[in-house]
Amino acid sequence: MSSSKDVRAITIACLQFEPRIGEVEANLDALDRLARAAAAQGAELIVAPELADSGYVFADRAELSRLAAPIPSGAPSRRLEGLARELGVHIVSGLAEARAGRFHNSAALFGPDGFIGAYRKLHLWDGETTVFDRSPPEAPVFDTALGRIALAVCYDGWFPELFRRYALAGAQVVAVPTNWVPMPGQPEDASAMANILHQAAAHSNGLIIACADRVGVERGQPFIGRSVIVDATGFLLAGPASADAEEILLARATPGAAAATRQVTPRNNVLSDRREDAYGPGFGPTDPDAAPNADDKTSQTAGEVT
């Protein structure tokens, strides 16, 4: 495993497509096809949409219970783990998770050596609150051969606290499976609010953020596409993708250089300049390289949960 301090550019891919509710095998077939195409173009980290296996708009909890599977022992996880091993890549996908009688809107990370870890969406959106369970307050950062990777899902992007916590924990890349929907009051000619929020999170925390959205209309719910890959400076590396078409976004980024972007002037660092005396302490453990002046030197490794 390489050191998180290594400076090496990697190729990130976001897969934008249309999962269909209840069609797990067909959805995984589409993900497989696009992941292979992305890997053939050099992708090393591949991100798929939220609930890419099951689809999104569940009629009720009973329907979710028929479609959800354990992570990593369920069939969707096993298939994605095998694909990551075969292609020699890292794959992040949103999955409907069944876990000890509870159901979570989750994201899982697989690598060339197998399953690495999972994250369970902290902030449930609208109808999700009627079928999914509240997740435990966990926000892991995983040490991988590509760098330190964290996960978020869709509506999590509306909460800057999560991205700040990840930055303080030493994350370099945040992979975001998502199913963005239109925002009330959004002008047609304006940038998607989701893109604005993730660009702001990337810039203010020095994080590379890769958002893979879906397209289509499911049971009357439209989705907006517009997947993006954002540099740690906050500027776009790829996208926005189209609003309605299947696409593969590809971009080169350097996880090991992310922390340097936090030094916005010789005298200013967006993490070490925080005034905790005015608005309270930071969120979660602090990585010594992320915030040079912080006292808390703990960090997190693969598979561990804060």
UniProtKB/TrEMBL annotation:
Pfam families: CN_hydrolase. InterPro entries: Aliph_Amidase/BUP (IPR050345), C-N_Hydrolase (IPR003010), C-N_Hydrolase_sf (IPR036526). One of its GO terms (biological process) is putrescine biosynthetic process from arginine. The keyword Zinc does not apply. GO terms for molecular function: N-carbamoylputrescine amidase activity. PROSITE patterns: CN_HYDROLASE. Residues 10-255 form the CN hydrolase domain. The keyword Cell membrane does not apply. Residues 260-306 are annotated as: Disordered. Keywords: Hydrolase. It comes from the Bacteria. This is Predicted amidohydrolase.
